[in-house]
Structures are given as structure tokens and as C-alpha cells.
């Protein structure tokens, strides 16, 4: 490749393509059990609270053992290559344990703390997988900042969100056909595990490109340039996020600087609320389609699968708009308002037509295009690059807390208040009015947080600080 790698558009987008595979497969594996929830109940004897416990496990180690925060600190201190490799290995380990648990047969009497052993082992694997996946996400976010800052940053981050959406589409559409084709509920998990391994091999190719970039930037030997801030234009009116000396390495005290930032807390709370209204909903969305809209189980995953389709085009478009305008609070308010409205309509008892569900999922795609397109570039603009990994990890920590708590609570509510009978497959049937009301309330709180962010943006614009 001719010319400096840092100035090569082909190199930048090639890097994005390399890391895309493991990111897509990670998102695929994260939500792959959502269409299988009815099968888990009818074939493996799980209950909705078992499923809720399992889905909440994704954040256990990240939340209760602060692994996500440690991941951000490791990223800022040890760099992209080390953290990315370590997190991918952890992710593969957790995915392997989860595959083993779902594919194995456990005696009905085998229980740990009163919970089916299979659920516990699957949850443990999912928790380990969650550590690796979240560490990968913050690493890939920093990779994008490293290669695209000052160029097409918001567009690249928009495409990063598209990768997540592609993974969601695969997780909703592929599992049921694969189970039918191979006659095993574990078949889609094994397939996705292979994709994760392939993505790891491609990540090793990225490492070679990163090493060449380091040499071009004259970073010396051993130090990862992603550990320090190399962009002198990074400034902020918030003293807690001011630019540092490019040669200054990340210190643990920098966490305090981040936590003193008012902007950081507004963004973090918005992330917690918005994503708590999206990802836990997706884990129950297929079951919602079956129970409320009477969609056949083999087709029910296709309706939530419509949600990410529009985002494939809209997220890069919104990211491009942010690159040009630089102000995104209005986009975030609109996205949060759409999310709340969608959950309110799903909660209405008289809404029963499946075509309405398709429409709502498409609108949700618009919502989750608007918010991330403006939210994540805002973080990169406010936080110095040497503190960026820790900032992302703190935000993702709060986000994981909300997602895990919401997933667990919805499972408990379904079992305690929402069972209406038994279906022909031997599983329970549910009334989803109460869970959707909870999601609507979370959406309303996200709207409030987005309005606070918009007020802050307006105040800074009036003061000439943006």
C-alpha cells in the first residue's frame, strides 16, 4: 500500500472491515437465545425466570466484579492490541461454556442454589462471554477513534452501530431455521461460536496493521499509540475532560476527573435508560410476538428482525449529519421519544395486529439509529483520547447494570404476574401488558435525560463553548 497508512482511506475502512467480523458474531451470539425462549421452556424445561436469570448473567461479572471498568483501565494502560487479544480469548471461552451447557443433558434434579444446573452453567458461560464482549466493544470503539479521528469519525461509529444491528438481525432470523435443519437447539450456538473464532483470526491481521501504524507515528517500541492522546485539537470547556500532554500516560486518578464531569453523568444515565429499553426488550420480543400477536414460533423472530434493517442505512446517514453539524442532542431527544412511544403502543391491550408490530419494529430501528449516531461521537469529543477507554468502560458499566437488572426483573414479572395458561408445546403463555408498561416507563425516563442533555447543549452554544 503506497503512502502513509494513517492517511490511507482504504486502510481505515479495511481496518473497520477486519474488526467487523468478530463484532457482528459477538452481537449474534449475545441475542441468539431470544428466538429460542419458547423451545427452552418446552424442550429443556426452563421457566421465564430461568431465562431472565440467564439473560441478566451477561452483566454479572462486569457489574458485581467491576470487570468492565478494569477492561477500560487495561485498555488505556496496555493498549489496543493487548486488550483486544485478551478480550477475544475470554469471549471465546465464555461462548464455549455456554455452547456446552445448552448442548448437554442435565438430570432434572441437578440444581445449584435451587436453580437448574443447566441454567447456572449457561449463565456462567454467558457472564464470561459478557466480560470479553464488552471489553471488545470498548476496544473497537477506541480503534475507530484512533483511525478515524479528524476524518469520518461519526460515520465510522455509525457503521460500528450497523455491525451490531447486523448481529441482531442474524440472531433473530437464523436460530429457528438452524434448529429445524440440524434437529438441535444448540446448532445455532455452535455455528456462531465458529464465527467468533474466525473473527479472532481476522483480528490478528488487524494487529499487523496496527504495528505498522505505530511505526509510522514514531511511537517507539512496545508502546501502543492508542494509550496516549495524539490529537492536539481535543479540547473541552469542562475542566474534568481537558486535553492532556500527548506523552502523559493514563493514571488511575484520571477516573476521578471523568467522574467529576457533568457531561459524563448525563450521557451515562442516558445510555443506561435508553439501552435498558432496547436490549432487554429484544430478548423478550420474539416471545411477545408469539403471545400477543399470535405469530407462529418459526416466524416470530422475523418481526424483531425488521428492526435493524433500516438502521443499516440510517445510522451512517445520521452519523454523517453529525459529522457536518456537530450537534446531536435534538437527534437523541427524538430517538428517545420514539422508543417511549413504541413501548406505549405495545403495552396497549387492544393492539393485536401483527402488521402493527412490524411497523413498530421499523420505527424502533429509526430510534436506535438516531441516538447512537450522536451519542458516541459526543463521548469521543468530550473525553481526551488517553482517558477514552476508561470513559467508555464506565458508561458501558452503567449500561450493563441497567440491561441486566431490566432483563432479570422482566423474567420475574412474567412468572409472578403474567402467566395466562399453557400452550400446545407444554410451555407457558403470557400477558405482556405489564412488562411493556415497565419498558414504556424506562423510555419516559430516557426522554427526560435526553432533554437535560439538550438543555446543556443549548447552554454551551449560547456561551460559545461548542
How would you sum up this structure, described in words?
The chain has 466 residues and is mainly alpha-helical. The protein has a single domain, classed as Growth Hormone, Chain: A. The chain is built from 19 helices and four strands. A hairpin with a 5-residue loop joins strand 3 (419-422) and strand 4. The two termini are 38 Å apart. Residues 219-247 have low confidence and may be disordered.
CATH class group: Mainly Alpha
Q: How many distinct helices?
A: 19
Terminal residue distance: 38 Å
Specify the overall morphology: globular
CATH architecture: Up-down Bundle
The residue-averaged pLDDT reads: 86
**What share of the residues lie within helices?**
over 70%
Main pleated-sheet profile? 2 strands, antiparallel
CA-atom Rg in angstroms: 22 Å
Total beta-strand segments: 4
* Unreliably modeled segments: 219-247
Structural class: mainly alpha
The CATH superfamily name is: MFS general substrate transporter like domains
Biggest sheet, strands in spatial order?
1-2
Number of domains: 1
SS strand fraction: under 5%
Kindly identify the CATH topology.
Answer: Growth Hormone, Chain: A
- How do the helices and strands follow one another from N- to C-terminus? HHHHHHEEHHHHHHHHHHHHEEH
